[in-house]
Amino acid sequence: MWFRNKKTHHQQSDAELIATYKKDGDTAVVGVLYERYGHLVYSICYKYLRDEDMSKDAVLNIFEKLFDDLKKYEVTNFSSWIHSVARNNCLAVQQKEKNKIPLEHTMADVEMEQEAELEIYAHLPNLPEAIESINEQQRICIQLFYLEKKSYVEISTQTGYDLNQVKSFIQNGKRNLKNYLLNKKNESR
């Protein structure tokens, strides 16, 4: 009775399942691993992604990759290994989402940046006059920060202003320069 001694996939350990898959390529093995670990992988994915649909998609992608990964890698402790795979997959998804720029905003953003650059170039001839129009503290901080690329701390050390004053002079100076240049633009129309 040789067939009674043979374990079914559900009775095999993870290591036995992986060995069977590597030997026979039986895809049902991945299904058994999914039954055993799908909920764990989902909870890991949800912990990182905080989105039900994205987590479900991640689980499916992870188990779909198992068909190739189990043949490529030597897996001795499947539960630890799948935990690491799930975590790394989710971190990659997070990074991809973080770097993704919505397509509908991309063209508008590019056009706005181009318009802003054209605005700046259109007002460059008035910039020396604009810089002279702001008060001395603002002018010094603006020149040190933007032209000499000094940090707030370096400006504070060089001028004797405290950090809050430096920040305030730069912010107010930028606003005053912008207002001056916009007024010049409106006068020239």
Rg on CA atoms, Å: 31 Å
Strand content: under 5%
Overall number of domains: 2
CATH architecture of the largest domain: Orthogonal Bundle
Helix share, percent: over 70%
Total strand segments: 0
CATH topology of the largest domain: Rna Polymerase Sigma Factor, Chain: A
The major pleated sheet works out as: none
How far the N terminus sits from the C terminus, by CA atoms, comes to 100 Å
The CATH class of the largest domain turns out to be Mainly Alpha
- Fourth-tier CATH superfamily name of the largest domain: RNA polymerase sigma factor, region 2, helix turn helix motif
General shape: elongated
| Number of DSSP helical runs | 10
What are the secondary-structure elements, in order, as H or E?
A: HHHHHHHHHH
- State the secondary-structure class: mainly alpha
Average pLDDT works out at 82
Top keywords for this entry?
single chain, 189 residues, mainly alpha, Arc Repressor Mutant, subunit A, 10 helices, elongated, disordered N terminus
Can you offer a commentary on this structure?
The protein has 2 domains: 7-99, Rna Polymerase Sigma Factor, Chain: A; 103-187, Orthogonal Bundle (Arc Repressor Mutant, subunit A). It has helices spanning 2-5, 14-24, 28-49, 52-72, 78-99, 103-123, 127-133, 136-147, 152-159, 163-187. Mean pLDDT is 82; it is low at 1-5. Helix 2 (14-24) crosses helix 3 (28-49). The longest helix has 25 residues, at 163-187. With 189 residues, the protein is mainly alpha-helical. The chain is built from 10 helices and no strands.
